[in-house]
Amino acid sequence: MAAPMRRWIVRKLMSRFLKRPKLDQIHCCYCNTAKKRYDLVVIGGGSGGLACAKEAAELGKKVVVLDYVAPSTQGTKWGLGGTCVNVGCIPKKLMHQAALLGQAIEQSRAFGWNVPPEVQHSWETMCTAVQGHVKSLNWGHRVQLQSKKVDYLNAQGSLVDQHTVKAVHGKGEEYLETDNIVVAVGGRPRLPFEVSGVLQHAITSDDIFWMKKSPGKTLVVGASYIALECAGFLTGLGFDTTVMVRSIFLRNFDQQLANLLADYMENEGTRFIKQSIPISIDKLSSGQLNVTYRDSTGTTHEEVFDTVLIATGRKAETGKLGLENIGVSLDAESSKVIGGHGGDTERSTVQHIYAVGDVLHGRPELTPVAIKAGKLLAHRLYNGSTMQMNYEQIATTIFTPLEYGCVGISEETAVEKHGEDNIEVYHAFYRPLEFTVPNKDSSQCYIKVICEREHPSKILGLHLLGPNAGEIIQGFAVAIKAGLDYSTLVSTVAIHPTCAEEIVKIHITKRSGLDPTSTGC
Ligand code: FAD
Ligand code: NA7
What we know:
Elements: H1 3-17, E1 25-27, E2 34-43, H2 47-58, E3 63-66, H3 82-87, H4 89-108, H5 123-147, E4 151-153, E5 156-161, E6 164-169, E7 172-183, E8 187-189, H6 198-201, H7 205-208, E9 218-221, H8 225-236, E10 241-244, H9 255-268, E11 271-273, E12 276-283, E13 289-295, E14 300-305, E15 307-310, E16 314-316, E17 353-355, H10 367-382, E18 396-398, E19 403-408, H11 411-418, E20 423-429, H12 433-436, E21 446-452, E22 459-466, H13 469-481, H14 486-491, H15 501-504
Parallel strand pairs: 2-3, 2-7, 3-4, 7-17, 9-10, 9-15, 10-11
Antiparallel strand pairs: 1-2, 5-6, 6-7, 8-16, 12-13, 13-14, 18-19, 19-22, 20-21, 21-22
Helix pairs in contact: 2-10, 4-5, 4-8
């Protein structure tokens, strides 16, 4: 049978399989239509919402998930699964991998591979492959909801009273009555509207992974997680990439590692315009964008780019949810839901209304955080559990060309919290073995372990700049969560030859002033 016919039959069968089951219905006082009754309504089908909904359904509850994606400012749209799947972790990590492969091809020559001098990369081919994977995940989420008997509405949700959610979709609107509500609407990029032309001409992380044609010469505005990751893979893919930095790199991360990372990126070809902010973006007749920006002395400059990518933070999408009208308190600055009421980390000011994921005020904006919080909440609601989400010591990694992985606190925070005299900072510059043959500069490969000074020297923070930092840090995060101290760390026998072994071999303190360069075996 031909492939298109096979795909058509599979789609037909699946659409039948995905039909929603019949539900209990009661009369609605807001309209004349019937009102559906649920145990749990989840607003937002991203990492946290889906995890919570599926877990609650597994515990035998009648659950519906509403997911609606407002198009980006440039009109980009995507499917079920939220930020991580469609415009976050997944396409980002795949493009990071594409960039690393480019580096590997270059370096492979030193290892004897006969690679042609000019190796071309196709943005279109990469995007088609990445988007294909993302679409398969969208489909997988729908199938999982169906198999776990969670209802799914491609609808925009809002709260009309403490127990009623209004769902607006292509066919009109419906009202859902429920015992519990979980708000899991995530966030969206925040644009600096003071920059004229930003709305019309700039893209964000909501667009970059879905661009049909390559971005060309790109200006990335912002100097944090998302800005540096995007700038990193764009540089690695061969685009002329500039980052405009307003103040510091990676606020809230260890500043020594943040600066080393920026140095590495600069050496790899990313250009930084420091201490500057954009003022305006104007479209030229060529289609290119003329950016006017101001530096710290007040002097204005102009430069032409093909693409301007704004990565100046994210904001919660709570404006249209009607939360405040029904008594749910939001943080005045972040517009996020304030949790922690009644001793429950995710409970809002209304007893049976909860928030998980990026929309919860003051919590790390990370997928595994949203998933874990959503699952734990379902178990507290429907399985008699009392286990709260622990937001401490959550590991993360910035997937820049040299990855920066960390768990625990930065040196700055350790000094602030414990005092300089009460902490010991061990550090090492090391050379990954794989950097030696291609003679790759390893000046920024660095490890920092921050401990309490007093015996047993509990580890407060571990920071690693190097290849595969994400893979390395995950295991150490387990040990640190279990209370790892310095003597246990260094009594561990290394795996040789690895980058991770440098962590268990760390022995030079900053206080000693000794050269922290690791000398190998
Ligand atoms: P989301 O995943 O954002 O889901 C919310 C969903 O609700 C969305 O589909 C939204 O459209 C929908 N919605 C909004 N309003 C309504 C409404 N009124 N009605 C119905 N539906 C609505 N995290 C990591 O852990 N690792 C990474 O490497 C990583 N990389 C990232 C890279 C980028 C570029 C970005 C932007 C984020 C990255 N993150 C990463 C963060 C991660 O994506 C988020 O923390 C995570 O997706 C949050 O999940 P959530 O469930 O809170 O919200
Ligand atoms: P962050 O971490 O909030 O960082 C925002 C960055 O943008 C930061 O470097 C800011 O500089 C900069 N910024 C903010 N406003 C402006 C304006 N108006 N002009 C220029 N630069 C500006 O956001 P991210 O998007 O990187 O990451 C958000 C989360 O998503 C992250 O925690 C991950 O978990 C996923 P500043 O330091 O304030 O001077």
